[in-house]
């Protein structure tokens, strides 16, 4: 860096990415890694799609970038951005992201932390050949903050990814929720070892364990029930949550060892009516390490959906996760990390009472507001 210096909050954030190794040959580094990261992050915040749009955006905002970045060689080309993201280590990049988020997050003790997977469907590694990139996200529901993520081979790989994520993150005292893919003995052991509680969905793919829970809910004494009603826009849903406490859980699974922390079985019965349509009924089952408190378990079940509504839906609709076509898996993973950093910053900027899409448009129009988003919520030591 020469004379120009980024704002203090941006400099502080960049400290967490200092350990990121530049994969380029030194003699080809006409543009610093810092510049490429900051420019691509700003482009993501403002809604650019593809390398050419990113370059167009940077050229239009070149005078603004020059106020805090040294750019002796001007704006990078589209090929420069593309080559960097094809070679950058996603593992190192993800570790930097996790450390940065840890500096933003407050203590999660007592809060709901939802773990759920999402598939990016736009990856095309070769012409005519589609592949899927599946990412497992760890979402602090109350804070609206993505704490961590990991790429897995497919939905079935979530069972292995969750314990690895729990080792990296400090989730002591949190209440962790997952869908049925992660309701496994190894996941319960990892959660207990991390000092957290859990509420895990159970479906038929768990075989005899699922049958045990269903039968127990039918035949054993219900200790508590809790009912809540949602009614809006012609839709009415009544949810009744029932809990029992079990002391004779199946101790082991055939292939994955012993369960840990199991205490409560939970049944959620939903009755939904939309307009003049017939009422539909749905029953779901969960296992929990919590006490048989129906309202507390109901809150955990309900809060889990924020990972779908406030993260996955926004990434699909606002950031084009599924429609973006990238021909390199490493690049796709790295771009996904940049988008998730951008989403974190946009959500944490609260001076404008607007949704994510509106705030991204404003950032594209107004460089002063872009600067505000770029430093939003970043603690300054």
Short précis:
With 381 residues, the chain is α+β, with helices and mostly antiparallel strands. It is 40% helix and 22% strand.
Measured on Cα atoms, how large is the radius of gyration? 23 Å
CATH topology of the largest domain: Transposase Inhibitor Protein From Tn5, Chain A, domain 1
End-to-end gap: 21 Å
The CATH superfamily of the largest domain is known as: Transposase Inhibitor Protein From Tn5, Chain A, domain 1
Low-confidence stretches: none
CATH architectural group of the largest domain:
Alpha-Beta Complex
Class by alpha and beta content: alpha+beta
- Please describe the biggest sheet, giving its number of strands, its sense, and whether it closes into a barrel: 9 strands, mixed
Helix proportion range: 40-55%
Mean pLDDT figure: 87
Lateral arrangement of strands in the main beta sheet:
5-4-1-6-7-13-12-9-8
What is the name of the CATH class of the largest domain?
Alpha Beta
Query: How much of the polypeptide forms β-strand, as a percent range?
Result: 15-25%
**Total tally of structural domains:** 2
The strand count comes to 13
Number of helices: 14
What is the approximate shape?
elongated
Q: Helices and strands, in N-to-C order? A: HHHHHHEEEEEHEHEHEEEEEEHHHHH
């Amino acid at each position: 860096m020469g004379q120009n210096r980024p704002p203090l909050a941006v400099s502080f954030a960049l400290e967490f990415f200092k350990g990121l190794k530049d994969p380029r040959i030194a003699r080809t580094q006409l543009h610093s890694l810092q510049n490429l990261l900051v420019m691509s992050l700003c482009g993501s915040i403002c809604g650019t799609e593809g390398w050419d749009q990113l370059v167009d955006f940077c050229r239009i905002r070149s005078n603004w970038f020059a106020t805090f970045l040294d750019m002796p060689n001007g704006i990078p080309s589209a090929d420069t951005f593309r080559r960097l993201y094809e070679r950058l280590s996603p593992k190192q990049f993800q570790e930097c992201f996790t450390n940065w988020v840890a500096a933003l997050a407050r203590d999660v003790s007592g809060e709901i932390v939802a773990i759920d997977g999402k598939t990016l469907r736009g990856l095309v590694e070769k012409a005519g050949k589609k592949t899927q990139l599946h990412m497992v996200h760890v979402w602090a529901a109350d804070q609206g903050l993505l704490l961590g993520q990991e790429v897995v081979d497919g939905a079935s790989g979530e069972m292995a990814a969750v314990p690895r994520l729990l080792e990296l993150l400090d989730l002591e005292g949190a209440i962790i929720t997952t869908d049925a893919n992660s309701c496994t003995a190894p996941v319960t052991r990892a959660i207990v070892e991390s000092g957290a509680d859990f509420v895990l969905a159970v479906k038929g793919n768990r075989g005899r364990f699922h049958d045990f829970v269903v039968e127990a809910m039918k035949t054993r004494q219900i200790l508590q029930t809790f009912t809540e009603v949602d009614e809006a826009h012609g839709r009415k849903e009544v949810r009744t949550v029932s809990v029992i406490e079990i002391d004779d859980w199946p101790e082991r699974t055939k292939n994955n060892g012993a369960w840990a922390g199991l205490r409560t079985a939970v049944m959620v019965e939903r009755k939904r009516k939309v307009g003049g349509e017939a009422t539909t009924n749905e029953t779901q089952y969960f296992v929990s390490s919590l006490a048989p408190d129906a309202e507390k378990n109901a809150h955990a079940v309900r809060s889990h959906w924020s990972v779908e509504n406030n993260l996955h839906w926004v990434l699909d609709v606002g950031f084009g996760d599924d429609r973006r076509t990238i021909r390199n898996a490493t690049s796709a993973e790295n771009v996904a990390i940049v988008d998730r950093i951008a989403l974190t910053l946009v959500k944490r900027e609260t001076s404008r009472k607007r949704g994510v899409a509106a705030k991204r448009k404003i950032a594209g129009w107004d460089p002063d507001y872009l600067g505000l988003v770029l430093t939003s919520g970043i603690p300054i030591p």
